[in-house]
Amino acid sequence: MDPLKFISATTQIVTATTAVITAYLAYQTYLKPPEQEDESEPSSEVDESADEKLTETLVFKTSKQKTTLKVTPQGLECHLEDTREGKGGHQWTLSISDVKAILDAKAYHVNPGYKVRTGTFTLGPKRNWLYTKSLFPEPDYLESVLKSLLHNVGK
Q1: pLDDT of the residue at 100
Q2: What would the DSSP string read from start to end of 29-53?
Q3: In a domain, 105, yes or no
Q4: Where is this region: Disordered (predicted)?
Q5: Residue 2 falls within a domain, yes or no?
Q6: What is the pLDDT along the chain (155 residues), one digit of tens a residue?
Q7: Rounded-to-integer distance, Cα 38 and Cα 44, Å
Q8: Angle 139-152/44-53 helices, nearest 10 degrees?
Q9: Segments forming the whole domain that contains residue 126
Q10: pLDDT given at position 47
C-alpha cells in the first residue's frame, strides 16, 4: 500500500472519530436539560428586613450620567450626577404624602420598552425616567426595588 494513501485513510478515520466523540460530548453537555435545584420561597420576614435596609439605589448609568433614588426624611429624592459642568444635581422630591398616595394607587410602573440598553419607569407624577437594563435586566425586579424604596419613606 502506498504510504500517502495510508496516511490519508488514517487522517480520515481520525477526523471522523473526533467528530463522533465531539458530537457525543456536545449532546451530553449542551443538549441534556439542566437540572434545577429546588429553591424555597423567601419568607415575608426576609422581604421586610430587605425593605428596611434599602434606602438608595442607582437606576441609570452611562459614561456621563448616573441617576440615584434616595430615601430621605423629606421623602423620595432623585439625584442626577453628570460629568458636564452645570448639569445634574437634585431633580425632584416626592413628599411623604405623595409617596403614600402612590402606594395606595399603585402608581408605580416599569416599561422596558424596545431599546436595548434603557427602559423607563414612572413614580406617580414623575413619568418616563430612564433606567439602565444592565442594572435591572428584569422589569419586575426594578418594580420591586421601587416599591421597597416607596415603603421605606417615612420609616
Answers
A1: 94
A2: IIISPPP----PPPPHHHHHHHHHH
A3: yes
A4: 33-52
A5: no
A6: 788 888 888 999 999 999 998 888 877 776 555 554 444 444 444 444 444 578 899 999 999 999 999 999 999 999 999 888 878 888 999 999 999 999 999 999 999 999 999 999 999 999 999 999 999 999 999 999 999 999 999 88
A7: 18
A8: 70
A9: 44-152
A10: 46
- Residue 12 φ/ψ region, left for φ over 0, alpha for ψ in the -120 to 50 degree band, beta for the rest: alpha
Please give the single-letter amino acid code of residue 153.
V
pLDDT for residue 25? 80
Q: How many domains, the chain?
A: 1
Q: Beta-strand (E) ranges in the chain?
A: 56-61, 65-72, 75-82, 89-95, 108-111, 118-123, 126-132
In a domain, 54, yes or no: yes
Give the number of residues written for the chain. 155
φ/ψ of 56, rounded to 5, equals -155, 140
Do the domain assignments include residue 92? yes
- Which residue type occupies 65? Q
